[in-house]
Amino acid sequence: MRLERVDATDARAVLRGLRSAVLGAGPAIALGGEDDLPREVPAGTAVVVTTSGSSGYPKAVALSRSALTASAMATAARIGSGSWLLALAPGYIAGVQVLVRALVAGNEPAVVAGPFRTASFVAAASSMASSRGGERVPTFTSLVPAQLQTLLDEPAGCRALAGFAAVLVGGQALPPALAARANYDGIPLDGVGVRIVDGEVHVSGPTLADGYLGEPERTSAAFVRDDAGVRWYRTGDAGRFDGRLTVTGRRDNVIVSGGVNVSLDRVERIVRTLPGFVDAVVVPVADERWGEASIVVAVGASSSDAPVDADLPAVRDLVGDELGAPARPRAILRVPRLPTLPSGKPDRAALTALARTWAESSGDSR
Question: Considering its fold, how many domains does the chain have in total?
Fold first, then answer.
């Protein structure tokens, strides 16, 4: 199967490529990555998406036509079929899946124009109203938690969300307070298996990717088979499953502070329960005394006259009560806005670099 590069930032170009790769005879399309991707890929491949994931190591994920259509059909079986709104970057797997769901449903997707803003989302959602045989066509969209939070915080965004039959949320752990506001169910799609192995979330089913293109060792490490021959994907996410999946964070987002392993995802989830910190991000910094520590980065204005953020004692007390003293954040860094990736997720690399630069001149506050 021939592999053809497509501009991953152009939603319409990606849609055209997917229409041929998924519904037609190809070629397969490449989204992102370097020019050294092979010109030929295994038969049945529809898309190769290059993503750094959480590790920062570029990986070319090969997705077959059958996996993409299986995902679209399982989604339709769960929530219904209708029109889809693309609010995610088209070059990411989640954005690709939105477009494939629209194609499988036989509908042209709506697209949020430009950077994600409530106004642009509302405008795109408003353009979707249509009916067939006198009945309104259901509408759907997919968001990351940061986008969902933005919409829920504004009346116009809430009204727009209320018009959708269902909204898919993923990409990162969903804060408990936000999950409650959004009525998140966490139930796997039909045909998708979930298990927890040593605290890590594994998933199985026909929706899995084929693996990492040209990297058999990395593929075999991430995609494993059990004794019954079932193929599972090791997500790298920590979580629990009791019929409903709750993702608690990344297993590798851990620091060693004073000889104690501290999950920054757990710290972040606790901090986000405090008023004004629902979007806060907890990042690691070096610490002369403890080896490593964490800093809470939150939106807001800081007072240059105050040596310590007024909210820091409450943050440290809450985290310390839940996780112990080594987990208490060292400081709070206020920023005008949180930088995000094209996927809508917080740009943790940029926030970590910002926090480390800021921390170089600050003292230890334990």
Answer: 2
* 61, 63, 67, 71: CA torsion to nearest 10: 70
> Per residue in 309-366, pLDDT tens?
889 999 999 999 999 889 999 999 999 999 888 777 888 889 999 999 988 876 544 4
Please check whether residues 159 and 185 belong to one and the same domain. yes
Domain of residue 203, residue span: 65-246
Find tokens 């007390």 and name the residue: 317
Asked if residue 231 is part of any domain, the answer here is yes
Q: Which residues lie below 8 Å from residue 190, measured CB to CB, with a gap of 6+? A: 74, 77, 78
For the residues of 118-147, what is the DSSP string, one character each?
Answer: HHHHHHHHHTT--EETTEEPPEEEEE-HHH
The residue out of 185, 218, 246 marking a domain boundary is 246
Domain boundary among 222, 246, 270: 246
Both tokens assigned to 4 = 């053809």
The whole-angstrom separation of Cα 149 and Cα 207 is: 28
Measure the CA–CA gap between 343 and 61, rounded to whole angstroms: 16
**319: CATH:** 3.30.300.30
